Fold this sequence. Notes:
Chain A is 44% helix and 11% strand.
Amino acid sequence: MSNDQGKPTRREAPAGLIQYSVENLVPFGPIHPALKEPEYFKLVLEGERIVEVIPRIGYVHRGLEKAAEMRPWMQNMYMFERTCGICSFVHSLCYGQAVEGLTLFQTPRRAKYIRLIIAELERIHSHLLWVGLMGHWAGFDTLFMWVWNDREVVLDIVEAISGNRVHKSMNAFCGVRRDMPENMEDRTVERMKYIADRARFYREIIDTEETMLERTEHAGNKVSQETVEKLCAVGPMARYVGLRNDVRLNDPYAAYDEVPFDIVTRNEGDVLALLRLRLDEMVVSANLVSYAVKHLPDGPFRVLIPPVIPAGEHSSHCEAPRGEIFYYVKSGGDRIPERVKSRQPTMANLPTALEILKGQTLADIPVVLTAIDPCFGCMDRMSFLDTETNKQWTWSGEQLRQYGIRYYFPERFKK
Amino acid sequence: MSEVFTQQIEQFAADAKAKTSQPRKGETFVEVDQAKVREFISRLVNEAHVVHLSTMTGLDLDQNLGIIYHFTYGPGWVQVKTFVPKTAPTTKSIVDIIPGAILYEMEIHDMFGVTFEGNPWIDKKLLLPDNWPADLPPPLLKTSKPADIRKRLQLEAPHK
C-alpha cells in the first residue's frame, strides 16, 4: 500500500467507459466472472505483473448500522443474522454477546454448548464451500462437486437441529431459541466422523494431485509475519504465516473454555497452506462438535430478559469461519440501541489481500483472491433481499413478527 | 501477564494525561485527548506490542464526534477513545503506525465525515456511492434521515 503522491495524476475514465490509462490501469470488476459478489479493484499493471491494487467496495452496502438505530434490540438480532448468507449464526452470536455484556443475566451452560455446536457446524460448512470454490478456480471441478456433496451432510444436521439450512435463527439474548432435539447424539457423532474422514481424504488429494499443486503452491506474494500482524489480518489469513491468532483460544466465548482443542497454524504463507490449514481445521471442528454433543449439560437453555437494555457500551468478538468478527453496541437505556458497529473479517483481511496480490500475474487473481475466502456482501453489510418475487401479497416486518409470536406462543391467543 | 500489560498501559495513559477506567476484567478504556492520541497509540504499538487493531468505531455525540480504536491483545482489550469537534472534524491518521487502519479510517470518513490527515486514500470513496452529493450530511450522523438520503439520491422507498 504505497501512496501515490509524487506520481503523475492518473487519467480516470469517465463513468460508463473503460479506458486503459497511460499507466496500464486495468479495471477488475465490479461484475466479473471471478467474483461472486460485486466488488471493484483498480489494478496498476506492469506488463502482466500487478504493481498496486486500489479497492472500491460498497456496491452492496445497505446501511445496516443505520437501520439498527431504528429497531428494537431483538429485531436487530434477526437483521444482523442476515448480514451474511454463509456465516449467519456467528453474527447473531457476536451481537448477542455484546448485548448480554450490558445486562446482568448469565447465559445457561447448555445454551453455550448449543452455540458452540452450531458455530462449529457453520465453520465446517463454510470451509467446505470454500474448498469447493478453490477447486473450481484451480480448474479441478471434480473436487468442487465432491466437496459440495459432502457439505449437504453438514447442512442436514444443521437443519435437524435448528429447522433451517442457512439462517439458523437460533440465538436469543442469554440463550438459544430452540433446544437440541432428542436422539441427536449418535447421528451427529457418526456424521462428524464421516466429515473428518473426508477432510483427511481431501487433504491427501491436495498433497498429491498435480493440478492443485501447480496452481496453488507458491501462489500469492509471500508476506512476513510482521507485515500480516501490522495489517491486522484475522483468522486463517493470520494463521497461515504462523501467528496464533484465534479468538476461540485467546479470549474464549460460548463453551470454548471447557472443551479441549488446539488451533491449526502453518508457516508456508501461500495458497496451498491456506487449503491445508482449512482442511485441518475441519477435522478439529468435527471433533469439537462430537465432544460437545456427548458432553451436553442438562438444564435450561434460555433466560428471558426484559426488552430494555441498561445504558453502557460493550464490545464483543468471535471467531467466524473467516476470522475475527467484531460488534460494538452502545445503549442509552432504551428499547433501541444508540449505536451498533459491526466489522466483518473480509474488511480486516482486505489490506493483506491487496499485499499478497502484488507481484502476481493477472491470471492468478481468481485463485489468490478466492484464497482469502472473501465475503464482500458481509463486508458491505448487505442483506440479501429479493423484492421482485411473484408473490401475490406482502407482509410488513411488524406483520411478520406478529405471525411469529402467534406461531410460537399459540396459547397466548386462545380464548 | 495481563496485569503487567494493564499497569504499562495505565503508565502510558498517565503520561498522556488521559482518563482510564476498567469496566470489566481485562478491558481498559482510555479517553485520550485528540492531540495526544497518535503518540499514545504509537507507544502502545511499539512499547507494549499491542498491534492488533480490531476496528475503529465512529460515534455521534451531541457536540462532538467520538472515535474509538479497539485494540486486542490475547484475552484483553484496550479501547482508546478520543473526541473530535463537529465544527472541525479533522484528526491525524495512524496509518503509518498501523497500516491495517487504512480502510477503517476511510469508512469513518465516509460515514461521519472525519478527515484523517496523512491517510493516502482519504479522498477516495469506500462505501458511499460515487454520486453522493457533497452537501448531504454523512449518513451515520443522527441528524441524517434515510428518507432525505433516498430523496436526494432519487431512490424509491423499498416498501410503500
